[in-house]
Specification:
Layout lengths: L6 H24 L3 H20 L6
Amino acid sequence: MSNVTNLRQARKDRARADKRAAANENAAKHGRSKAQRVLDATQNAKAKKKLDDHRFEEE
């Protein structure tokens, strides 16, 4: 005898796999890793501090 397959569950599993594949594709296209985000934030903060340090303020 063959195994009984629940068609509803198989359909849901296939839909989940398709969504997961689409999400991975979008993450590869548009996403950045946490390390990249932290590096950008650090560089932006350093550039802002350097700019503020060179600001000339008259009193």
